[in-house]
Amino acid sequence: MGTYSTTTNPWPLLLPALMLSCLFFLLPTINMIFLSLTTETGFGFTNFADFFSTPYLTQALVRSLFLALVSTLIASVISWPLAYFVVFCVNEKWRALFLLAILAPFWTSFTIRAFSWQLVLSDNGVISWLIEKVTGSSVALGILYTMNASIFGLALFGSMLCTFTLYGALVSIDKKLVEAASTLGARPYQLFRDIIFPLGLPGWLAGIVLSFIVCIGDYAVPTLLGGGLKPVLAQIMLSVLKGTYNLSQAATIATILAVTVIICASPLMFFRLLKSRSALQ
């Protein structure tokens, strides 16, 4: 009797994961889409037509998209020096400690972190107090409850995600490859351009996508730091559920957010696929 191999038949190991994915992801997504297409008169795209014909909803969509794009852009730029420093500048025995310091904010609730930054950025907060102690005059920052405060909070959280995924890609780079290129006369910017950046690109793109998903659907930061004066779609969706409990409208907003994420992330994933195929050829 031949021996059983999970390499030739991986389904026994994949089936539990597939079943859980269908139960906790696919079925809720299908139900959300079904609710978004449900109207008082039956079934159709009336909810989507009402959404795009309502100015404050379309403005909230544009605001959510702008907030997510800017925050993700800032986070993606910040992640490179952080990840590069931990991987290439820190001694290997201290690397885990530095990485732990970067990821330490994940140990607390996202809402608690947003509230703590509210205390720091307020006109009577720590920054204003320090400026007053140094200059001798009180200063009103005027940052809290603005779009800039929301971007600041989301960019900080996104930078941790991007740094973590980028770190995973950079730490797997063979140091002998970098040393060999340096020995052959490659300058630092050439090492980064030709070796470090291409090999770190997959982790960087993954971090960008994760950060964008978190930023466009976040509720806590725009509420606590942005003040909710110019609401984003996540805030409107929650207000609909808490107010009128209109599941169809809330599902429509959630579906539009999901489609927006797919549309924005598709070019990055398509670019990554092309790079992978070109590397195999």
List keywords for this structure.
281 residues; mainly alpha; MetI-like fold; two-stranded antiparallel ribbon; 2 strands; globular
Description:
The protein contains 12 helices and 2 strands; from the N terminus they run H-E-E-H-H-H-H-H-H-H-H-H-H-H. With 281 residues, the chain is mainly α. It has one domain (43-280): MetI-like (MetI-like fold, Orthogonal Bundle). Strand 1 and strand 2 form a beta hairpin. The model has no long low-confidence stretch (mean pLDDT 86).
Give Rg in angstroms: 23 Å
Helix content: over 70%
> So how many helices?
12
Briefly note the CATH topology name: MetI-like fold
Number of domains: 1
Order of helices and strands: HEEHHHHHHHHHHH
The largest beta-sheet arranges its strands as 1-2
Note the topology.
Blueprint: H1 11-36, E1 38-39, E2 42-43, H2 46-52, H3 55-89, H4 92-103, H5 110-121, H6 126-135, H7 147-170, H8 175-183, H9 188-216, H10 220-224, H11 233-242, H12 247-280
What's the short story on this structure?
The chain is 76% helix and 1% strand. By secondary structure, the protein is an all-alpha fold.
